[in-house]
Amino acid sequence: MDRDDSESTTSLEEENTENFCDNPTRDTLAEGLMGLFKPAIDQLDEKVRATRVSQLELKEQLDRLHDELRKIQETQTTPPELDGYVKKLINVKHKVTVVTNVLQGAQDRLNRLHQQVDREKLRRKTLQSVSFCTFRYL
């Protein structure tokens, strides 16, 4: 009877320990994957930021060029044929705006991914401290 009681107590302790503790192999694997993906995500995030900055600079330059061409066209008594070029600039400006919007969406997704990684790290840290405390009291 003692033997059954000790076996049932051990299995209950193991059951409770599994409820509070994570599988160390799974945690190690998850941390390894997070360590593997985080640098790539950070690098991608930095490149998206740099691309967005260059896209904004290009848009500003196109706006300035557009304004300058309009001024030239207004000052000329016989305006040069700039309509075709202005239309091309407007098309390029539209494309830059589209690319900027796509990059903004990618940036937002990357930011959400960063938040999820941070939450997961905090959750794991909390679970580790809870499981350490639970293990000490068992």
TrEMBL record:
<dbReference type="GO" id="GO:2000300">
    <property type="term" value="P:regulation of synaptic vesicle exocytosis"/>
</dbReference>
<feature type="region of interest" description="Disordered">
    <location>
        <begin position="1"/>
        <end position="25"/>
    </location>
</feature>
<dbReference type="GO" id="GO:0016079">
    <property type="term" value="P:synaptic vesicle exocytosis"/>
</dbReference>
<keyword id="KW-0175">Coiled coil</keyword>
<comment type="similarity">
    <text>Belongs to the SNAPIN family.</text>
</comment>
<dbReference type="GO" id="GO:0031083">
    <property type="term" value="C:BLOC-1 complex"/>
</dbReference>
<dbReference type="GO" id="GO:0000149">
    <property type="term" value="F:SNARE binding"/>
</dbReference>
<dbReference type="InterPro" id="IPR028119">
    <property type="entry name" value="Snapin/Pallidin/Snn1"/>
</dbReference>
<dbReference type="GO" id="GO:0099078">
    <property type="term" value="C:BORC complex"/>
</dbReference>
<feature type="compositionally biased region" description="Acidic residues">
    <location>
        <begin position="1"/>
        <end position="17"/>
    </location>
</feature>
<protein>
    <recommendedName>
        <fullName>Biogenesis of lysosome-related organelles complex 1 subunit 7</fullName>
    </recommendedName>
</protein>
<dbReference type="InterPro" id="IPR017246">
    <property type="entry name" value="Snapin"/>
</dbReference>
<dbReference type="GO" id="GO:0008021">
    <property type="term" value="C:synaptic vesicle"/>
</dbReference>
<dbReference type="GO" id="GO:0032418">
    <property type="term" value="P:lysosome localization"/>
</dbReference>
<dbReference type="GO" id="GO:0007040">
    <property type="term" value="P:lysosome organization"/>
</dbReference>
<dbReference type="GO" id="GO:0006886">
    <property type="term" value="P:intracellular protein transport"/>
</dbReference>
<dbReference type="Pfam" id="PF14712">
    <property type="entry name" value="Snapin_Pallidin"/>
</dbReference>
<dbReference type="GO" id="GO:0008333">
    <property type="term" value="P:endosome to lysosome transport"/>
</dbReference>
